[in-house]
Design brief:
Layout lengths: L2 E5 L3 H13 L3 E5 L2 H10 L4 E4 L8 H11 L4 E5 L4 H9 L4 E4 L4 H14 L6 E4 L2 E4 L4 E4 L2 E2 L4 H12 L7 H8 L9 H15 L10 E3 L3 E3 L3
Parallel strand pairs: 1-2, 1-3, 3-4, 4-5
Antiparallel strand pairs: 6-7, 7-8, 8-9, 10-11
Helix pairs in contact: 2-3, 6-8
């Protein structure tokens, strides 16, 4: 699963992009400005950065230059500035692509996947302990043996992967899996599916190491 960093200070754009990109199988983190971007890139690994030119502090050109010189991570500029100067400046500091706003979400995804493919950062396989998840094939396995997840179990697993390290409430999980369920999904149903998922993923479902319960708050995956 490819991990993206979105550097954007418009909360509306951030919310919409995270929802859409997550539904497309990407893991997305977001920060609003130059300071935060350079800090998180120094602490975490990303496959690609989506970067606005105008930020709450600093500017995208400086962020791109620093990321490229220090990490070599692919960068796509997202900006309302579609003039020739901004485009040329973006490429001069190392940008891999440049998409002026407003853009079509499907086109953005296509451009992201193209840059990932060209830079060898497709990120199709990720691990949770000894469980291997292939988001291209839509499978989960252990020691080469398919775990045969149902569609809803797999969707629930993707939600955890896309929010790795974060605590997810039961309401957040219900909202995330609602759209693919063939029947009404209530709190009891969620309990059943978490139990089934643990039985397939965990070595000891009674003492889970992958999907952990955070008492009074929800669940999280941080392995």
């Amino acid at each position: 699963m490819s991990k993206l960093l979105l550097v954007e200070d418009d909360s509306g754009i951030v919310s919409a992009l995270i929802e859409f990109l997550t539904s497309e199988g990407f893991s997305v983190r977001s920060v609003p400005g130059q300071r935060e971007a350079l800090d998180i890139v120094g602490r975490e690994s990303f496959d690609l950065v989506l970067l606005d030119v105008s930020l709450s502090n600093g500017n995208g050109f400086a962020v791109c230059s620093a990321i490229k010189s220090e990490k070599g991570i692919p960068v796509i500029f997202l900006t309302a500035s579609d003039d020739e100067y901004s485009t040329v400046s973006g490429f001069e500091v190392g940008a891999d692509d440049y998409i002026p706003k407003p853009f079509r979400p499907r086109e953005l995804v296509s451009r992201i996947r193209n840059v990932l493919r060209l830079t060898g950062r497709t990120g199709g396989v990720t691990r949770l302990g000894d469980v291997v998840i292939d988001t291209v094939r839509g499978t989960a396995s252990r020691n080469g043996t398919d775990l045969f997840l149902s569609a809803l179990e797999y969707r629930l697993l993707l939600v955890f992967l896309n929010n790795r390290g974060a605590v997810l409430s039961r309401n957040q999980l219900l909202e995330a899996i609602w759209d693919i369920a063939g029947e009404f999904v209530n709190d009891n149903t969620l309990t059943v599916y978490i139990k089934r998922l643990r039985e397939k993923l965990e070595k000891d479902p009674q003492n889970p190491e992958i999907i952990k319960t955070v008492r009074g708050l929800g669940y999280k995956v941080d392995i």
